[in-house]
Amino acid sequence: MLLLKDGVDVISISIGGGNGISAPYYLDPIAIGAYGAASRGVFVSSSAGNDGPYPMSVTNLAPWIATVGAGTIDRSFPAVVVLGNGKRLSGVSLYAGLPLSGKMYSLVYPGKSGVLASSLCMENSLDPNMARGKIVVCDRGSSPRVAKGLVVKKAGGVGMILANGISNGEGLVGDAHLIPACALGSDEGDALKAYVSSTSNPVATIAFKGTVIGIKPAPVVASFSGRGPNGLSPEILKPDLIAPGVNILAAWTDAAGPTGLESDMRKTEFNILSGTSMACPHVSGAAALLKSAHPDWSPAAIRSAMMTTANTFNNLNQPLTDEATGNVSTPYDSGAGHLNLDRAMDPGLVYDITNNDYVKFLCGIGYEPRVIQVITRSPVSCPVKKPLPEHINYPSLAALFPNSAKGASSKTFIRTVTNVGQPDAVYRSTIQAPRGVAVTVKPQKLVFSRAVKKRSFIVTVTANTRNLIMGNSGAVFGSISWSDGKHFVRSPIVVVT
Predict the structure, then answer these.
(1) What are the φ/ψ torsions at residue 16 (nearest 5 degrees)?
(2) Which of 187, 242, 404, 411 has the most CB atoms within 10 Å of its CB?
């Protein structure tokens, strides 16, 4: 409450996690606090968590929070592992110490022993007799990436190569390692281990290439970014959108070294970190700029502007892809798309949501008034007829069909848009229906004037669940867009059984 009295417009909460296990909203301190802020006009953004690429790993699921996933940027810090057979493996590193200068060192993979702790280079797991004077291959996972380098250093190793497993795929982030080290994607890691296993005297060196810009494709959904579906309220698509969250440059405290390890005595004014905790502040900053330009916009309107104008294509003008799989990303990965602040400044239409709408949503998911009051901190009442949670005026649509449905069944969504562009405007709809699904909208044209700034429409989604072919994500995806020729207002559609 003190923050609100101080005139705060935006709260940025870079906290997420829980392996997809989310507490009910009335037991979630972030959801409760965020509602108190949002209900008083303060925009709240929070990180989607770093437990991706596993399904249902997204956190901070409340519909009054802007939930932000992470994408890459077009800057990288390449490093190259050169093997004794001449093969070069591409990776990344932020190591800035003395280089190996092309000298070849013996290469060892502790995982050959079959001991999991050794393969992961956990604390006290490496035999100094095996590691001393060598480059050690460590598997990613279970302990911090930089901590593995410290373990190798303590064991006498001269360098480390960090290999992704299948869960991280080709997702790479730079780290300011204490020793010469390089991170490799899953494919390159497998090639490295195959070389170690098939060679009597494997050797390698690591070359560090500094900073490279203009990387393509970018952005790409970061492999670690929390993924949908929403495990608490599947009627609400989460994450809402993604923003830059990989290898982000920012100010750094001199109270800790760049790795954050206690033994890291290095000091730096800036550091490069990765995570949805880096992506969240990008959206927070964008929200502050939007609030400055449009002081009368509500938190829901600001989020809507960012979601409906988000990019769904990369800098190759191709659909956004998923770093973990290399496949085209889905709204479960990237939400509405990647933040585009320029377009968000002039979105044309916005989907606004009132405090009463949030209360109706909570009633719709089965919360009793006394439970809802834990969140709202004020008395509430639920309508006699239970509201449908999917009718909340959200800038995305999620249609849930029961598996037991026989034949074709339909879901209807009521949405209302507010014109924040030119007063006299005519918007026409365009539908990209999910595969095997019929989508209709009425009316197909929305006419605005100085006197009429709000228009409602009904979207009907019809599907025969027995004929639907779901992808690996367990859903099919489409979109509905409104355009007046200048603005393009897009909302993702998710259909799941």
Answers:
(1) -160, 165
(2) 242
